[in-house]
Each structure stands twice: as structure tokens, then as C-alpha cells.
Specification:
Length: 543
């Protein structure tokens, strides 16, 4: 019996029972807890900032007409952009995944590419193309058209944000379509259902979770976006917070920031409740193959729809950037003394690399604890990091400004505080890929190393870490690429004299010298485009 007990214990170590048990190393728990607390700290600083405002004054600000208007504008914008993104993204997903659309392979990739164009660069391009003194107005003036409908305001903001966020819905919906059993709608049609009825009663419940996931990303992006509403002159939370901060209305900005954070929490809670009901989502367990749906007379309209979307999302911004580049030496495009320096690009790369490396390093303890020791505590630490990701960049920036000016003046407007903001904002990207890699590693390998005399830490460094390295690097790459594009946190927190691509683009845009933004904008788009290769490489790895 004693021999059997020793053999059972030894077998348990090789199976990784000790690693997967309920007693993770205390050092790992403390480290993960400290990281989670650091990520949550900006929320605490914001609450402390608001707590210092007189209650009656705070209530008067929150219930005032200006606050109500901003709240209504923001909610209307989120609803309109989310609905429009679904209206574009779902048909594109169906056309590229389930029909005989001409050039389907080309459109599969092309309609996802608008995601690599930062929305504020898209807004620059649309203002330059369709603004009062834009390209379209210049073309129509010789034939007697003196004015065109304004691109500014609610309509223009909805248009731009929809065109550059619908790929979230497209990608998640298409993934659901590819994972679903295509034979089920065919079976419904053989039982007398029309194509429309089969889609509504069979396919739509299958892909509803994918649509909801993409819609959540669109809603959060729309709520947190600062650049597009600011350029389109539409008052949302982010624009008014920035304006009030620069106009020394710091109390109002702090209250609006907390209110924006609360609205973000409500959206996440609603998605969580909706996502909990998966009764209508059919998981595919059988053959997934199925014939393509013939478009018939709808082939040309479908093709025209795809081409129209691409023309607005890609041809307009790329064409405008090319025009800016070609005219950059002419009056009005010369930059007004704001000369572009490649130092700005190196600054962007430097802080992005620092944020990527730090995020990859601090993601490992959280991801390892969540993957190997599944418990309520590990889940709390893991999910806590996602609150930073859901926090709008402008709210994060204001919170850290309050922290720096009040509690740590030595850190205010320094690179460490800026890099910390990036880590808080984008850490879940690194955690997600790292956790997936940890789950793919057989825990018996580390268990075998420990039976040969290695300590747990040495077994992790020599066995587990090399195996999860690809996931860690993929997460670092995603953080790098996202950091390069981050606008509001960079504008608020960058040190004086430390300009990056996004701060320079914002400077020359505000001064009206769009041509000077051509080179940095093109650099950002090219670098952002690398994210598509990261996504595709992850998909190939997963398959």
C-alpha cells in the first residue's frame, strides 16, 4: 500500500496535479495580485479626485443641461455606429463565407483592412475630401455648386466611425460562420424554408454570439474614441473632457470621466447578461462543409456593395494621403514651421517597444496563474486587468495626471508614467495570447523536470517559458502595434518636448496643415497593417 501511495504521488506530479491544484505558490499569487492592483489604481485615483469635489457642486454639474446633452450624444453615437457596423459587417461576413461572390478570396482580406487605419486619420481624410474647402467642394465649384452638405456633426462622426470599426463585427461574425455547421441551413431549405427563412431561423442563432462580440468591441471603441468626434466637432464625453481639461474645468472633466467609466461598465454588464444566454447558439459538432449559396441576380449588387465599402474605407483615405504627400511642398501644405522629424517616429517606436516588453513581462504571472490554477482568485486577477482595457484612454490619462500632480510630482509628464498608461490600457492583449500558449503546454513536462531535481522556478524558466515564448511575443507585438496608434493618453501624458507620430499628426491637423501629416499617417497605417499579419499568423497557428 505504501509503495502504491508513493507511485500514485509520483504519477500525480507527472500529471501536473500539484501545479493544477488549489495551492499555487504564494509568491505567484502576491505578484499577480500586485499587478492587478496596479492596473486598477487609475480607477482609484479618479474616484479620489471626484471625492474631493463638493457634493452639491458635483450634483449640479452632473444634472446640468451640458452633461445631459453630452450623455445623450454619446449614447446616440454608440447606438448608431453599432447598428450601422452590424448592417455592414454581417452581410460582408455572409458574402465572403457562404456565397459564390466573385473574387471572394480578395474581398475576404480587403474588407478587413480598414481596421488598420486609425479612425482619426480616417476623419482627417474625410474632412479633407468632403469638408467645406475639401477636394469635392473644389471639384464642384467650377460647375456652380457653391456648397455641399456638411461632413461635421453627428452624421459625419457616425459615417467615419462606422467605416473604420465595422471590421470588428465582420471578423467575429465570419469566424462564427466558419465554425458553424453549414449543412444545417441546407437541411432547413430541403424542408421547405426559403433562403431568408433558413438564415433567420438557423444561421442567425448560430452566429449571434459572434455578432454580439463584434458589436461590443464597436460600442466600446465608439464610446472611448477621442480623435474622430474632436475632428468632426461633435460633442461626446471624450471631446468635452479634453476641452474642459484644457480650459481648466478640471472638476467637470473628472466628473464626466467617472460618468463615462460608468457608462462603459453598463455596456459591459449588458453584454455579459446577453452573452450568458447561449441557448440559441448551436455549436457545430458534425460536418461543417456545405455548398455555397448562389447569389444569382444578386451577384452584381453584392459585388457593388463590397466595392463601395472598399472605396470609402480604403480609396478615400489612401488617395487623400497620397494627395497630401504630393502637395506637401506647395503653399498650404508646407507645415507652417511644424517640420516633420524622423525623431518623432523613433520616439513612437521607443515607447511602444518599452510598453510591449513590460506588458509581456507582467502578463506572464497573470496568464500562468489563470491557466494553471483555476480558482475564483485567479479569475478575479485575470478579469481585473480587462477593466484597464475597457477604460477610455482620455479617462486613464486624466486619472494619472491627478496621481502625478497630487501624489508623485516627480513622475508627472515622464516617460515611465506614459509607459505605465500604455501597459494598463493594453495589458489584456498580452495576457490573452500568453494564457492561450500556457494552456497548450503539457503540465507534465514541468512536473517531470521537478522530479529530476529542478525547483519550480527553474522548471518554469527552462521548460515552460521557451514553449510559451511564441504566445508571449505575439502579445508583445499586439501591444506594440496598438500603442503606436494610441492618441488621447499620449496627448495628455507625453513629456514636454517628447513628440511622437500621433502628437505630431494632431498638432499639424489642428493647425490646418494636413499635408504635413501625410508621411507620419502613412507610417502609422503601414505599421498598423502589421497587426493583420499577427492575427492571421495566430489563426494559422490555432488551426
Amino acid at each position: 500500500m505504501r509503495s502504491g501511495g508513493h507511485l500514485g504521488a509520483l504519477a500525480g506530479r507527472f500529471r501536473g496535479d500539484e501545479e493544477d491544484g488549489d495551492r499555487p505558490p504564494i509568491a505567484l499569487v502576491l505578484l499577480a495580485g500586485a499587478i492587478a492592483a496596479a492596473v486598477l489604481s487609475p480607477i482609484a485615483w479618479l474616484v479620489l479626485r471626484v471625492a474631493g469635489i463638493e457634493t452639491s457642486y458635483a450634483l449640479s454639474l452632473l444634472t446640468g443641461a451640458a452633461t445631459t446633452s453630452v450623455l445623450a450624444n454619446s449614447l446616440a453615437l454608440v447606438g448608431a455606429v453599432t447598428a450601422a457596423s452590424i448592417a455592414i459587417g454581417v452581410p460582408l461576413a455572409v458574402l465572403t463565407a457562404r456565397t459564390d461572390l466573385p473574387f471572394r478570396r480578395f474581398f475576404t482580406v480587403a474588407v478587413a483592412l480598414p481596421l488598420v487605419v486609425p479612425s482619426y486619420i480616417g476623419a482627417f481624410a474625410f474632412v479633407s475630401a468632403f469638408g467645406p474647402r475639401g477636394v469635392l467642394a473644389g471639384l464642384l465649384a467650377p460647375i456652380g455648386v457653391e456648397s455641399i452638405p456638411t461632413i461635421y456633426g453627428f452624421g459625419g462622426t457616425v459615417l467615419v466611425l462606422t467605416l473604420f470599426t465595422y471590421p470588428y463585427v465582420y471578423l467575429t461574425t465570419r469566424a462564427s460562420l466558419l465554425a458553424a455547421d453549414a449543412s444545417l441551413p441546407e437541411a432547413a431549405r430541403t424542408l421547405g424554408e426559403s433562403s431568408t427563412g433558413a438564415f433567420r431561423r438557423v444561421t442567425l442563432p448560430q452566429i449571434a454570439p459572434g455578432i454580439a462580440a463584434g458589436a461590443l468591441l464597436v460600442a466600446l471603441y465608439t464610446l472611448s474614441d477621442f480623435g474622430t468626434p474632436a475632428i468632426m466637432q461633435f460633442d461626446t464625453f471624450t471631446r468635452i473632457i479634453f476641452v474642459e481639461y484644457n480650459a481648466f474645468g478640471r472638476d467637470f472633466a473628472a466628473l464626466l470621466s467617472l460618468q463615462l467609466l460608468a457608462v462603459t461598465g453598463v455596456i459591459l454588464a449588458l453584454e455579459s447578461r446577453l452573452g450568458a444566454d447561449r441557448s440559441g447558439a448551436y455549436a457545430s459538432r458534425g460536418a461543417r462543409s456545405g455548398g455555397e449559396t448562389a447569389l444569382g441576380v444578386w451577384k452584381l449588387p453584392a459585388l457593388a456593395f463590397c466595392l463601395a465599402v472598399l472605396a470609402l474605407c480604403l480609396l478615400v483615405p489612401v488617395g487623400i494621403l497620397a494627395m497630401w504627400l504630393l502637395r506637401s511642398g506647395s503653399p498650404g501644405y508646407a507645415g507652417g514651421g511644424f517640420a516633420f522629424q524622423w525623431t518623432f517616429a523613433w520616439n513612437s517606436v521607443g515607447v511602444s517597444v518599452a510598453a510591449a516588453l513590460l506588458s509581456a513581462a507582467v502578463a506572464i504571472p497573470i496568464a500562468y496563474l489563470a491557466a494553471r490554477y483555476r480558482s475564483a482568485l485567479s479569475t478575479v486577477f485575470d478579469r481585473a486587468t480587462y477593466l484597464g482595457y475597457a477604460m477610455p484612454g482620455i479617462v486613464l490619462g486624466l486619472s494619472l495626471i491627478y496621481f502625478g500632480t497630487t501624489y508623485a510630482p516627480a513622475l508627472y509628464q515622464t516617460l515611465p508614467l506614459l509607459v505605465f498608461a500604455y501597459v494598463v490600457r493594453f495589458l489584456p492583449q498580452a495576457i490573452g495570447t500568453t494564457r492561450s500558449s500556457v494552456l497548450q503546454v503539457d503540465p507534465t513536462l514541468a512536473g517531470a523536470a521537478r522530479t529530476l531535481g529542478e525547483s519550480p522556478s527553474r522548471a518554469f524558466r527552462r521548460v515552460t517559458l521557451p514553449l510559451i515564448a511564441p504566445g508571449v511575443l505575439a502579445g508583445a507585438a499586439l501591444v506594440f502595434l496598438t500603442t503606436m496608434k494610441e492618441l488621447p493618453a499620449t496627448l495628455l501624458l507625453h513629456p514636454t518636448g517628447f513628440d511622437t507620430l500621433v502628437t505630431y499628426i494632431w498638432l499639424v491637423q489642428g493647425a490646418g496643415y494636413y499635408g504635413a501629416a501625410a508621411v507620419p499617417a502613412l507610417v502609422l497605417i503601414v505599421v498598423s497593417g502589421l497587426s493583420m499579419f499577427v492575427i492571421l499568423s495566430q489563426e494559422n497557428t490555432d488551426s
